[in-house]
Amino acid sequence: MESVMFRRKVYDQLLKWKKEYAGRYACLLEGARRVGKSTIAENFAKNEYDSYIRIDFADITEEMLDVFRDIAKPDIFFLRLQAETGITLKKRKSVILFDEIQLNPKVRQAIKYLVKDGRYDYIETGSLISIRKNVKDIVIPSEEHRIKVYPMDFEEFSWALGKDPDPLRQLFKAGIQAGNALNRSLMRDFRIYMAVGGMPQAVEAYIKSNNFNHVDSVKKEIIDLYLDDLMKIDPKGRLSAIYDSVPSQLALKKKRFIVSSATGKQKTVRDDERIFELIDSRMVIPCWHVTNPGTTLALTKEIDKFKLYLSDTGLFVTMMIAKEPEKAADIYKKFLGDKLPADLGYLYENAAAQIFASHGKELYYHTWRKENSTHSYEIDFILSSGSKIVPVEVKSSETRNHESIDRFSEKYKQYVGRRYLFSQKDVGSDGQLQLQPIYMLHFAAEEI
User: Fold this and answer.
1) Strand 26-30 and strand 144-148: pairing?
2) Which domains does the chain have, with CATH numbers?
3) How far, in Å, CA of 219 to CA of 203, rounded?
4) Widest CA span of the chain, in angstroms?
5) CA-based R_g, the chain, Å
6) Torsion over CA of 6, 12, 18 and 22, rounded to 10 degrees?
7) How far is 332 from 427, CA to CA, in rounded Å?
8) How far apart are CA 199 and CA 246, in angstroms?
9) Could you tell me the pTM of the whole model?
10) What is the spatial distance between Cα 48 and Cα 27, in angstroms, rounded to a whole number?
11) CA 42 to mean position of chain CA atoms
């Protein structure tokens, strides 16, 4: 858990839950490991309640476990819980935090009865919350209000650095250019965000040390933790191999994720299950291929044709560097300057996927063959926006060539609303295509 409490947008969602749903639903904060769920929950409990008790199932004593044997008898359970912790609970003014709830599925199942009892509020935090072994043999309570927690986005990162991103939002809404000097400065900030990522511990390390080597060591620990978790789910190692291959497959600009390229072995039926376990872990973000963007996107998505992005671009950078550690200093130097080569454009694409996902967007893409050619057109992302679809392309620098999105917008013109091309260039337009710097993507996502 990070020692610094950063400003997080999830806090506002918790306030809404407390006002509108608490007393009828427990709140479940779900997300990948180390995204800040526990810190957010405890900070909320301190600020918004008279008292709270936090139970961490990843670090629990035998004495406390024994208390939970009485969970079916609320009067006895609450008495023992207060006696064991030395904390007094107040009716409708206290909250109980169940941290890493996936480690004790039976307690999660009992949420139904605790909520019905009505005395206190409940916040659960969990990672790997939907993995089969963590829901096996229990009835998942319907009395859970789920909130997904993601790594810090660029706006939260800016807050952490003491910068106010709201003027950028105003520039975006007005369609005004930042100007050369400010655009360069903002792109530098965004590249630093990509390099550090949004894992709170990594952000804290960057603020305290201003040293990428130190930040990298923090991220390596998180990656090792993820790989250990995946080995526990799949001791054969195929699941961790799939995760480890995400950066390289994006770097090779493949049209889809190839499982056999990750494992080095022929794809099996169990590999399909592994992919969905990885997606459920929230360590990756899926982007599904659609065959007909002219209909509801989900109706023509191909579950066996997809791309995977890492949930945090900072972890992506560290995994990429791990393949060639001798280049680490040079790569970070290029992040700080305006010298990221065009062949690292997939990093911007991953950052875009991360931002869209944090806004709750389901990601799709579309490819189709060019006439009289062996090559294909491709739209990086397609998003739903009301009754319209929004095609998005992400480029590292050059913005003049946008044939794919032009052809797509013509082919599906009756369905296409706004259309965006994000790059390092300042605000502009080319016909109906909106050209935006990638640091504005966050604000575009709010409006899509």
Assistant:
1) parallel
2) 10-148 (3.40.50.300), 154-447 (no CATH)
3) 10
4) 77
5) 23
6) -100
7) 26
8) 18
9) 0.93
10) 14
11) 21
Q: Is 213 exposed, middle or buried (0-12, 13-18, 19+ CB in 10 A)?
A: exposed
Contacts (Cβ under 8 Å, ≥6 apart) of 310 = 246, 247, 283, 284, 285, 316, 319, 350, 354
pLDDT digit string (tens) for 138-196?
788 889 999 999 999 999 999 999 999 999 999 999 999 999 999 999 999 999 999 99
35: which 2 tokens?
Answer: 């995204």
Residue 99 CA to residue 279 CA, distance in Å, equals 21
State the residue for tokens 């054969």.
Answer: 236
- Among 293, 448, 435, smallest CA distance to 359 is for 448
End-to-end distance of the chain based on CA atoms, in angstroms? 33
Residue 268 carries which side chain, given as an amino acid letter?
Answer: T
Condensed to tens digits (0 to 9), the pLDDT of residues 375-431 reads: 899 999 999 998 999 999 999 877 778 999 999 999 999 999 999 999 999 999 999
Q: Which residue has the tokens 């930042």?
A: 178
CA distances from 233 to 14, 45, 133, 240, 281 (A): 30, 32, 8, 9, 10
Residue 408 identity (one-letter amino acid): F
Structure tokens at 81: 């819980």
Alpha-carbon gap, residue 341 to 396, rounded angstroms: 8
Task: Give the type of residue at 324.
Answer: E
Interatomic CA distance for residues 210 and 241, integer angstroms: 32
CA distances from 389 to 46, 248, 309, 356, 417 (A): 42, 29, 21, 14, 6
CA pair distance 335, 191, nearest whole angstrom? 6
Q: How much is the mean pLDDT over the chain?
A: 92
Q: How far apart are CA 70 and CA 127, in angstroms?
A: 25
Distance separating alpha carbons of residues 31 and 150, to the nearest angstrom: 6
Give me 22's structure tokens. 């608490």
